[in-house]
Design goal:
Layout: H1 2-20, E1 36-42, E2 54-57, E3 60-64, E4 69-75, E5 78-84, E6 95-100, E7 105-116, E8 125-134, H2 136-146, E9 148-149
Parallel strand pairs: 1-7, 4-9
Antiparallel strand pairs: 1-4, 2-3, 2-5, 5-6, 7-8
């Protein structure tokens, strides 16, 4: 009986792991002649995994930087400032400036970690986010290994699935009763 149970568990684990091996080929889209394409990605990491800081481009909100995902932006050429939530007390390189050229692609990786904070404040650590410009070959390789797209109109098959509610069946707050309300 123990052998059958072990065999069943091994089968389930093998089936679960086989879905993780599906490698989706990341192919950057060519930049148009009149704009630049910027890819921003954040490799999956346990530190700060639940935090998705906001990215501002030239002081305008663009997106949330999510753990294990990438995004692409089409931006006009010229000096562009990328900044992670300036009103938060994040440590690290939270602002970079690039001079974007039309027809080119740029890659920015967001690294994250926790830094011990020995000051007299109430927080024992500080959240660190670093924006790092990465060359294309390294970035493409890293995005393939780590990231899913967070764009709703992805040309890739499978990384993000939107679930549509097809009926009123299922869980609803309206259908639950609070046992203490009466």
């Amino acid at each position: 009986m123990a052998f059958k149970f072990f065999l069943f568990i091994a089968f389930i684990c093998t089936a679960a792991c086989s879905t993780l091996d599906e490698n989706i080929q990341f192919t950057p889209k060519p930049a148009s002649d009149d704009s630049a394409t910027v890819y921003l990605y954040r490799p999956s990491s346990m530190s700060n995994a639940a935090y998705s800081p906001e990215l501002l481009v030239n002081d305008e909100y663009k997106l949330s930087i999510k753990n294990g995902q990438y995004s692409s932006m089409t931006l006009p050429p010229g000096k562009t400032i990328f900044e992670i939530e300036p009103n938060k007390n994040y440590a690290g390189i939270t602002e970079i400036s690039l001079i974007l050229s039309a027809g080119k692609s740029y890659y920015i990786r967001t690294d994250t970690s926790l830094k011990l904070d020995a000051s007299a404040t109430y927080e024992p650590y500080q959240r660190v986010f670093n924006l790092i410009v990465v060359d294309e070959a390294l970035a493409v390789s890293q995005i393939e290994k780590c990231c899913l797209t967070n764009e709703k109109t992805s040309t890739q098959q499978g990384p993000i699935h939107e679930v549509e509610k097809s009926s009123d069946e299922g869980f609803s707050v309206d259908k639950t009763l609070n046992p203490f309300s009466h």
